[in-house]
Design goal:
By secondary structure, this protein is of the alpha+beta class. It is globular, with a radius of gyration of 19 Å. The protein has two domains: about 5-190, Aminopeptidase (3-Layer(aba) Sandwich); about 200-290, no CATH class. The protein has helices at about 5-20, 30-45, 55-60, 110-125, 140-145, 185-190, 200-205, 225-230, 245-255, 255-275; strands at about 25, 65-70, 75-85, 90-100, 130-135, 150-155, 175-180, 210-215, 220, 240, 275-285, 285-290. It has ten helices and twelve strands. It has a seven-stranded mixed sheet, with helices on both faces. A five-stranded mixed sheet has the order 9-8-10-12-11.
């Protein structure tokens, strides 16, 4: 049971984030507003057909799920669609889609939506939010794992199948499953900005091995992964994997190279997950830090 003061502080934090971003964030229920929300989603993804149909949005909202819209004045600039589910045998809120229109990005609207989502979940007796994200999109990985304090619980290979939208093209939809344990010490530290992210140079000097790096002409370079797979070999607690800081730009100029990055990161992550390691944080511009499940970041 979440303490009342935790619920109150979550609501206060969400209101402050919305004020900083210059938006209001509220639930959306009626058909006209849901139609506007659907247009926001289309402006972000440009997917063939509706990403979420209005009749489904209406049903989700009416049956007690969390549909949120961010407005700047009267203009809707961001949206989030989430529904109740189960994770590890406990109630969760699954965040299916969250986006901000291009003209309103990079000013904190996404954070305002996520914090309002957190406040909604806690007020409704739900202590975790789950969602999936593309592990090759470095800025999202940093936002989810470091800024929000979510944990990467599982690597999902081609989870959605082909989506054919602006964000995904016809790339394989590999995803990390993020689990945001809303009242955990990790999340409290992240949201209060008390997670000091060390410079990557420090981890390199301390001997953390790089298992994936950017090689010649921007191609992926896997190093030392085979040695880590040897069951008799002692492994360092930390491992580092570097990805491009903008995979969408890579895809637009060289699709073959983007596909190579997908395959390389899949190999690295599935291997490390199988060894009991998962991403515990992300250092900009694109460094994953791996550690044992449940380990603190940075240790």
């Amino acid at each position: 049971m979440t303490e009342p003061e935790t619920i109150d502080s979550a609501a206060t934090l969400a209101l402050a984030a919305a004020a900083r971003a210059g938006v209001t964030v509220d639930e959306v229920r009626d058909v006209d507003q849901l139609g506007e929300l659907n247009r926001v989603i289309d402006a972000v993804w440009h997917r063939e057909g509706d990403a979420v149909t209005i009749d489904l949005l209406r049903a989700l909202a009416h049956s007690g799920n969390c549909i949120l819209a961010a407005r700047s004045g009267t203009e809707m600039v961001g949206a989030s669609v989430s529904f109740r589910g189960v994770h590890e045998g406990r109630p969760t809120l699954h965040s299916h889609i969250t986006g901000v229109v291009p003209g309103a990005q990079l000013r904190g609207v996404g954070l305002a939506l996520k914090l309002r989502q957190r406040a909604w979940a806690l007020a409704n007796g739900i202590e975790s939010v789950t969602w999936t994200f593309d592990p090759l999109v470095a800025r999202n990985a940093h936002f989810n794992l470091t800024k929000l304090g979510a944990e990467a619980d599982e690597y999902l290979v081609d989870f959605y199948g082909p989506l054919h939208d602006d964000a995904n093209g016809d790339d394989a939809t590999d995803r990390l499953l993020a689990v945001w344990r809303l009242a955990s010490p990790r999340v409290a530290r992240a949201l209060s900005r008390r997670i000091p992210v060390p410079p990557i140079e420090l981890l390199l000097r301390e001997g953390a091995p790089v298992v994936l790096d950017i090689g010649a002409e921007g191609h992926p370079l896997i190093t030392g992964l085979a040695a880590r797979a040897e069951t008799t070999r002692a492994r360092p607690e930390r491992a580092l994997a570097r990805i491009p800081d903008d995979i969408l730009a890579v895809r637009s100029r060289d699709r073959g190279q983007a596909d190579a990055w997908r395959g390389a990161l899949r190999e690295v992550m599935t291997t490390l997950f199988a060894q009991g390691q998962c991403p515990v944080g992300v250092i900009p511009p694109g460094w994953y830090v791996f550690g044992p499940r449940g380990s603190e970041w940075p240790a």
